[in-house]
Every structure is written in structure tokens, then in C-alpha cells.
Design brief:
The complex is a heterodimer of chains A (615) and B (105). With 615 residues, chain A is an alpha+beta fold. Helices cover 38% and strands 16% of the residues of chain A. Chain A has 23 helices and 17 strands. In chain A, the strands form three sheets. In chain A, strands 2-3-1-9-8-10 form a six-stranded antiparallel beta sheet, with helices on one face. In chain A, strands 4-5-6-7-11-12 form a six-stranded antiparallel beta sheet, covered by helices on one side. Chain A has a five-stranded parallel beta sheet with strand order 15-14-13-16-17, sandwiched between helices. In chain A, helix 7 (292-302) links the parallel strand 14 (276-283) and strand 15 (305-310). Chain B is an alpha+beta fold and 105 residues long. Chain B is 40% helix and 21% strand. Chain B is built from four helices and four strands. In chain B, helix 1 (2-10) runs antiparallel to helix 2. The radius of gyration of chain B is 14 Å and the shape is globular. Classes of the chains: A alpha+beta (615), B alpha+beta (105). The A-B interface holds A 286-288, 392, 395-396, 398-405, 533-535, 537, 540-541, 544, 583-585, 587 and B 35, 38-46, 72, 74-76, 92, 94-95, 97-98.
């Protein structure tokens, strides 16, 4: 997988320059896979695992912008390749005195999955910017006057004298809210550069600024006309899929049979670059866990092959949790445990260079809070469905009464403008957390996303829409191995996200359908059975079976683990919970236990990083 | 107003594509009910009440569909819905197909 490592320091501080030099030497000593690609008075950059024409370093704008990853030119900007370029290019960014200004110009003119190093005309000041999709990770460590910017924590481990210690307050917050995502990470020394954010080194200081804000996008050129919104959504979705599919002649597509993955398949089969697509769908015992009929309909409609794989609890050994990739924050590892190696093997077998997924589509197209969409409509004075129509649409989706919805909408629209920061906090069985952990997790403003600092300028539904897009898709999987294919999430592409942000939430639920505009945009390409699905199955009970099949391991991990020792989880309540496993009525409980298992596995893997260590 | 809509269906005025068979009238009436019932009550997690209310509403128009109860073994769940012959009137076929009918009234 592609990785980068960027160092920025004060050009007038020789000591920090020497330290940066030593870090670079240590990195390159690990093997020829690490190449130094950029060097300057105050910066140096390295890359590994590049795939030519797909994920790589590229110098642009006369050498003032260095991109790492995949970059496309924005539609509407003249380009003979139709918007796809990973070669040197000229754009709106020019040599300026301020790297942050140049970075802002660059992300306006481009999209993709990248991080950019931007320098001023004299190459003495530099800034890092992460593209607004955030699909390529970007973490920062500030040490001895050097700003270290990297994509993969594993590359930092063993570099002297970097050590990392677990932030247990963050861990408690993550245990309470699995959707938590902000600058802070689970390691005290590491922060994340958020999507669309810029970090500029100016002398001794590091200044951070948001160059892209979803609320700005949502208030620009609002698409209030349904026909216009549908047409633009469809056009941009196809454009984004075209761009990604041009890079991958062979694609393994994870097709669940749901709306989002089916829309992506429809775009892939209509791509002008005509990639060879093989679909993969999973099923498990149980009527609600077997959606092969929908996957088959979509695959047949697209004229593509479909591989069907059964997921069985007996084949999943949780012991592999001891091997998860070390990262700045914990992930959820049950899904990659079940699928990742299988998908990598199938990709190799089918000749696919990438695994595509419709992941994120439910957030982009708005499969969310229909009640908050009503609140938005009450606040909004403009075209679109009437408030009465939106109320009935929200009732159809939520199953709530009109009266209840209107009361809630009035409260959310005007009386509780600080939400939905609180609304995103899932009720995850706080009773398994200790009182101290739950209290610290709730009140700490470090967990408040920076986008919410001026949250009241958009309605609660659009706030919720934006925040549901905040956690970026994973680029590195928990059990990655060298040579694994890349994972691509085309529905999270910046141009498509921006189109959907510009559509008012009441349009996004029009007619009483979630993801209403996406359904309309692709109605002619999708089987009617998929376009009109209101619910989707799930394999939650498979997780319960896996838990029961590995119960002794689960007990040892949790009862004897760091989360209990550090006072995050309540041991007695946990013991009671684990002492009465019952698949029939514990599905939701068992899902939460899987989340805690993932956090425990992450903590055990990272606990040793507090001491200088070899790899 | 809702009675006029249902009566219109009986008289063949509400449905241009099909003759006013009892199944068609029943489906039309159920759609009217589904559209308007949020003005009166919530249906989320209230399948029993929802179905009973629909049954009572249709009975006032001399329409008598079946009330079906089903269960799912793993994970255990119970659900009920109203259907007229093969038409599910207050749910989706995809959802009810997850349950095994155990009682039909």
C-alpha cells in the first residue's frame, strides 16, 4: 500500500534540520522501498509502495506543490485527459508568498485521494494540506522542532526517539461514541490533520486552518430544484466513477445488493473506460442475512460476474486481533477479520488491481435523520417541497406521528441549535463504562469537531449530514499485507460529496424515501426491487455467533485487559454480561462487546509504544 | 375526505388501471390509511396497534383482509401485518418475508 512521510522544520534552526536528517536516514535504512522524492531548505519527503499512475508523488506548479496519492483535475478545468491527471500540471495555484493560500487554490482546482506539500516561492516556508475527502490518512507529530507528517503509524515506530502513549480519556470517549472523529487521536503525541485542513510551519509555530468547510459548500449554489439536483448528482457521480475506473482496468466490486453498491455498479458498467468488473457478495445463515437475490438482480442488470461467499462463525478466530495494524486510533476489526484476506485473494485471482465499495453512500446520499430534515425545512425559506409534504415524508420514513415530528423539528430548528453534536453520540450501553469514564467522555470539548464551532449557520439536518461524512474511509485495513490491492470508495469523492451537501435535506428525503435524489437519479439503471428497497438486512447475529464461539478468548481479553485496568470498563458489570451469553436476545449487546474487543486489541498493540522500541 | 377516496375507488373512479375488484379497493383504501395515519398515531415499533387500526378502518368499509402474525427464530423476533391475498398492506414484502407466519386471522 502507498505510504508517505514528510518532514518540515524551521530553516533557521540547524538542530531541527539535523534531527530531520537523522529521521530521514533511519527511514531509508529500512530498505529500498523508501525513496526520498523531495528535499529543500526546510522540508523533505519520502514515499513507499507507489503504483505508477495511480498512487504516487508528483511535482506540480513549477515545483511549489508536491502531491502524494491520487489527484484529478476538477471538472470544467481544461484537461485533454478529461479531468484525470496524475502528471505534472498547472492549475489555479501559483507561486505565492503564503503556502496556505496556494494550498487553498490547489484543492479548489483538484480532487482525489491525496496529501499535498505546498511551499512558497523561496522554498523556505511549507504547509501540508489534506484533500477534503480525507481518503488518504494524514497524522502529525511535532517533535524537536520538526513537524512529522505521515500516513501510517507503523512507519514511525522504531524511529528514534519517537514514543507514543495512550490517551485514556480519548479511549473512554471512543468507547462511548464509536463515531468520534476529531483532531485528537488515541495517542497523546499524535494529532490528525482533518480533511480539508492545512498545517503551515511558520518559524517555531505550526498554524492550522480549515481550507474546506462543508457548511460553506452547503450554502453555495444551493440546488433547490429537484430536476436540477437529480441531473447534477447523476452527472457528477458518473464523472467520479469514470475517473477512478480509468486507473483500474480490473475491479473487484463489493456488491451487497443495497442501493449504494448497486448505484456504484451501474456507474461502473457505464464507465467510458470499460473496466472489467467482478462482483462479490456475502451471505450468512438467516433470512435477513441473505441478500443474494438483490445482488444477483444488480449483477444481471449490469452484465457482470458475481461471486457469492458464505460467512460462517466457525471460520473466524478472534485470536488474530493480536495482530491488528497499529494506528493512532482504534478501529472496528470484526468486518476485516471476516473478509479482508478473502477479498485480497479474490482480487488477485480475478486480476483486479483495486477493491471498490459503495461504502459511505448512505451518508453522502442522506440515509439519516428525516426528522432533522423537517427542522431544516422549517428554517429554510426557498423552493422545494412544502413543509407539509416534508412532514409527511419524514413520517413515512421514521414511523413517527406528525405531531411528534413537528414538536421535535421546532425544538431542533430553534431551541437547541448546538445539536446534533449530542445526537451523534450513540447510546452504547454506558452502563458497562465506569462512571468516571462516562463523565470524562461526555464533557470534554476536545471531542467536539471543529466544524461545529460555527454550527448554527446551517440547519440541524445539514449539520448531521456533514458530520456523518466526517470520519474518513479507511485506507489501510487492519490486516493489510504487502501487495494487497487498494480499496476505493468512489461515492466519497469530493465532487459528489459537495453536490449532495448543496442539496437541501428536505429534498434528500422527498416523497418519503431516504436517499431520494440518488434513487431518482439512477432509477432507470437499477432493478425496481433495489430502487424501492426501504430496509436492508444485516448480519449482526453472525457477530453474536462469533462471540459465543470465542467466549473464553473474549473473557480473557476484556476481563483481564487494559480497558478494565485503566478504569474505562466496569469489571463486575462486564463479568455479568459475559456470564449470560444468549444469542437470541443479546445481538445488540454482543455488537457492543465486539467494539470493546476492537478497542482492547488496539490498546494492547499500542501499549508498548511508550518505550523506544525496535520494529 | 378519506371515505370519499375509498368510495371513489369502489365506483371505479380512483384507479384507472384496474377494475374495482375487492383486492384493488382494499389496496387503495390501505394506501389512504397509510398516508394519513401519521396525523393520528406513530407506527414505529407498534405493529400490533398499527395493524389493528388498519383492520378496524378497513372493516368500516366492509373490507376484511387477513391479520398475520409471524416469528423469526434467530435472533428471536415477532411481528404482525395485514395482507389481502398476496398483497401486504402495511409493510413491505421484503420485511415480512423474514418472518414465518404462525397465525392468520
Amino acid at each position: 500500500m502507498y505510504r508517505y512521510f514528510i518532514l518540515i522544520w524551521n530553516a533557521h534552526d540547524p538542530q531541527s534540520g539535523e534531527y530531520a536528517g537523522r529521521l530521514g536516514q533511519q527511514l531509508q535504512a529500512r530498505g529500498p522501498q523508501w525513496q526520498r522524492v523531495v528535499t529543500g531548505n526546510s522540508f523533505a519527503a519520502y514515499q513507499a509502495g507507489e503504483r505508477t499512475g495511480v498512487s504516487e508523488w508528483c511535482a506540480r506548479e513549477g515545483g511549489s506543490v508536491h502531491t502524494f496519492g491520487t489527484v484529478f483535475r476538477r471538472a470544467g478545468v481544461s484537461d485533454p485527459n478529461g479531468g484525470v491527471t496524475n502528471g505534472a500540471s498547472q492549475s489555479d495555484a501559483r507561486h505565492t508568498e503564503c503556502p496556505a493560500d496556494a494550498a487553498a487554490g490547489f484543492i479548489r482546482a483538484h480532487w482525489g485521494r491525496y496529501v499535498a506539500l505546498v511551499t512558497d516561492a523561496t522554498a523556505s516556508r511549507a504547509a501540508i494540506v489534506r484533500d477534503p475527502s480525507g481518503m488518504l490518512p494524514c497524522y502529525l507529530v511535532n517533535r524537536a522542532g520538526v513537524l512529522i507528517c505521515f500516513s501510517d503509524l507503523e512507519d514511525c515506530i522504531g524511529l528514534e526517539p519517537l514514543t507514543f502513549s495512550i490517551d485514556w480519556d480519548y479511549v473512554a470517549a471512543a468507547a462511548l461514541n464509536c463515531a468520534l472523529h476529531t483532531r485528537a487521536t488515541g495517542l497523546k503525541e499524535v494529532s490528525e490533520l482533518l480533511p480539508g485542513e492545512c498545517a503551515e510551519v511558520d518559524g517555531e509555530r505550526v498554524r492550522r486552518s480549515l481550507l474546506w468547510h462543508p457548511f460553506d459548500v452547503a450554502q453555495t449554489a444551493v440546488l433547490e430544484d429537484t430536476s436540477e439536483a437529480v441531473a447534477e448528482l447523476r452527472s457528477i457521480a458518473q464523472h467520479c466513477v469514470d475517473a477512478w475506473s480509468r486507473l483500474h482496468p480490473g475491479i473487484l466490486h463489493c456488491l451487497s445488493g443495497g442501493l449504494d453498491s448497486s448505484i456504484l455498479l451501474a456507474c461502473l458498467t457505464r464507465s467510458r473506460y470499460r473496466p472489467v468488473v467482478t462482483c462479490l457478495t456475502y451471505y450468512a445463515p438467516g433470512r435477513d442475512a441473505d441478500e443474494r437475490v438483490f445482488a444477483r438482480l444488480a449483477a444481471h442488470r449490469g452484465g457482470v460476474a458475481l461471486i457469492e461467499r458464505e460467512l460462517v462463525a466457525a471460520g473466524v478466530g478472534l485470536q488474530r486481533l493480536h495482530e491488528v495494524r497499529r494506528s493512532p486510533r482504534p478501529g472496528y476489526y470484526l468486518t476485516p477479520l471476516q473478509r479482508q484476506r478473502q477479498e485480497a485473494a479474490l482480487a488477485h485471482w480475478t486480476g483486479a488491481s483495486a477493491i471498490f465499495s459503495g461504502g459511505g453512500g448512505d451518508a453522502v446520499f442522506y440515509q439519516g435523520r428525516a426528522d432533522l430534515a423537517l427542522a431544516d425545512r422549517l428554517r429554510r425559506f426557498g423552493g422545494g417541497p412544502s413543509r407539509c409534504a416534508v412532514a409527511f415524508a419524514a413520517a413515512r420514513i421514521t414511523g413517527r406521528s406528525i405531531g411528534s415530528l413537528l414538536l421535535g423539528a421546532v425544538r431542533n430548528a430553534w431551541l437547541a441549535p448546538s445539536g446534533p453534536y449530542v445526537d451523534l453520540k450513540l447510546q452504547q450501553q454506558p452502563s458497562l463504562l465506569t462512571a468516571a469514564a462516562a463523565a470524562s467522555a461526555e464533557i470534554d470539548l476536545r471531542w467536539r469537531h471543529p466544524w461545529l464551532e460555527d454550527g448554527s449557520r446551517v440547519g440541524p439536518g445539514k449539520r448531521w449530514h456533514a458530520l456523518s461524512l466526517a470520519p474518513p474511509a479507511n485506507y489501510y485495513d487492519a490486516f493489510d499485507q504487502p501487495g494487497d490491492p487498494e480499496r476505493v470508495y468512489p461515492l466519497l469523492s469530493q465532487p459528489l460529496v459537495e453536490v449532495c451537501l448543496r442539496i437541501p435535506t428536505d429534498l434528500l428525503i422527498s416523497g418519503g424515501w431516504d436517499r431520494a435524489m440518488a434513487r431518482r437519479a439512477f432509477a432507470s439503471e437499477l432493478p425496481a426491487e433495489i430502487a424501492q428497497r426501504r430496509a436492508k438486512g444485516g448480519i449482526d447475529h453472525l457477530g453474536s455467533r462469533i462471540l459465543l464461539a470465542n467466549l473464553p478468548f473474549v473473557r480473557e481479553m476484556l476481563l483481564g485487559g487494559l480497558l478494565v485496568r485503566e478504569g474505562v470498563l466496569h469489571r463486575e458489570r462486564l463479568e455479568q454480561c459475559l456470564g449470560r451469553p444468549s444469542e437470541a436476545d443479546q445481538t445488540r449487546h454482543n455488537q457492543i462487546l465486539h467494539e470493546y474487543l476492537s478497542i482492547e486489541a488496539w490498546a494492547r498493540r499500542c501499549a508498548g509504544l511508550a518505550q523506544p522500541t525496535g520494529r | 375526505m378519506h371515505s370519499a377516496w375509498v368510495s371513489g375507488a369502489r365506483d371505479g373512479k380512483g384507479c384507472a388501471q384496474c377494475p374495482p375488484s375487492p383486492d384493488c379497493i382494499c389496496l387503495h383504501a390501505a394506501r389512504v390509511f397509510e398516508a394519513l395515519h401519521p396525523l393520528v398515531f406513530a407506527s414505529r415499533n407498534r405493529c400490533l396497534f398499527h395493524s389493528l387500526a388498519l383492520i378496524e378502518y378497513l372493516a368500516r368499509h366492509e373490507l376484511y383482509p387477513r391479520w398475520v402474525f409471524g416469528v423469526q427464530a434467530v435472533p428471536f423476533a415477532a411481528h404482525c401485518w395485514v395482507q389481502q391475498e398476496g398483497q401486504v398492506l402495511n409493510d413491505t414484502v421484503e420485511h415480512v418475508s423474514r418472518y414465518t407466519p404462525i397465525l392468520s386471522i
